[in-house]
Amino acid sequence: MSTDNPREAAPGRPAASPALTPPADATAPLRHPDAPAPGELLGAHYGHCFGCGEGQPHGLHLAARAGEGPGVRVSAEFTVKPAHQGAPGLAHGGVLATALDETLGSLQWLLRVIAVTGRLETDFVRPVPVGTVLHLDAEVTAVHGRKIYSTATGRIGGPDGPVAVRADALFIEVKVDHFIDNGRPEEIRAAMADPDQIRRARAFEVNP
Ligand SMILES: CCCCC/C=C\C/C=C\C/C=C\C/C=C\CCCC(=O)SCCNC(=O)CCNC(=O)[C@H](O)C(C)(C)COP(=O)(O)OP(=O)(O)OC[C@H]1O[C@@H](n2cnc3c(N)ncnc32)[C@H](O)[C@@H]1OP(=O)(O)O
């Protein structure tokens, strides 16, 4: 994985908006003691997730791993398929934003909190052709109460290749009730009847 700072790699890039700038009293993120080990595949948090689920034929099938080294990091790979096109032979920008969102979301496995995306700011730096393997890295930069600040890059040509897309994000911690109260009842009923899904949901919660 490249160690360069994605912000430094982007001279002239405007600073993230104030909502994505951690306040002065934000703290460094803590990797939970029961977090997956560095290098471990994280698996899907929900089988029908468009980003990571195995049950979505045209989904991204993003496979994320717990990051190596210090900090709260993950890496992931996403292969751009013909179903992901926007322009002929090129990935759709919204699909690339989804890949960044999903990679950032998978940081929750390491924090062991459940959170949803509140804000996602994306830079599209280079076009991404169909067939590309996008090498994604994401890291939590700070935590303030329920607010989780994070950043991600997607590189082409290899884990140290040039940055094609990048994002800064704010995730907001929620309880599992967020899904139970808001999701369509049939999917919620099915998820709650699936012991494997309950186990996956609990893997995110320190105090389920
Ligand atoms: C049994 C069923 C189990 C099923 C689940 C199974 C497993 C799931 C487990 C984990 C999931 C794991 C991985 C997921 C991986 C990837 C998925 C991709 C992630 C997504 O794709 S997820 C979908 C898109 N996402 C949404 O669908 C969110 C819709 N939205 C809301 O649901 C609310 O909007 C919410 C909850 C965000 C906040 O609502 P709220 O009422 O709880 O909190 P409140 O408004 O008080 O905000 C508290 C503080 O955050 C600040 N704040 C809030 N929003 C902000 C914004 N947008 N910009 C800047 N600051 C913001 C406030 O300013 C305040 O800041 P302060 O504390 O400083 O005042």
From TrEMBL:
Keywords: Apoptosis, Cell membrane, Cell projection, Cytoplasm, Fatty acid metabolism, Hydrolase, Lipid metabolism, Membrane, Transit peptide. It holds the Pfam family 4HBT. Residues 14-30 have a biased composition (Low complexity). It is found in: Cell projection, Ruffle membrane; Cytoplasm; Membrane. The keyword DNA-binding does not apply. One of its GO terms (molecular function) is hydrolase activity. It catalyses: (5Z,8Z,11Z,14Z)-eicosatetraenoyl-CoA + H2O = (5Z,8Z,11Z,14Z)-eicosatetraenoate + CoA + H(+); hexadecanoyl-CoA + H2O = hexadecanoate + CoA + H(+); tetradecanoyl-CoA + H2O = tetradecanoate + CoA + H(+); octanoyl-CoA + H2O = octanoate + CoA + H(+). Residues 1-38 are annotated as: Disordered. Its EC number is 3.1.2.2. The keyword Transmembrane does not apply. It is an enzyme of class 3 (hydrolase). InterPro entries: HotDog_dom_sf, THEM4/THEM5_acyl-CoA_thioest, Thioestr_dom. It is a peripheral membrane protein. Residues 89-150 form the Thioesterase domain. Belongs to the THEM4/THEM5 thioesterase family. This is Acyl-coenzyme A thioesterase THEM4. It comes from Streptomyces cremeus.
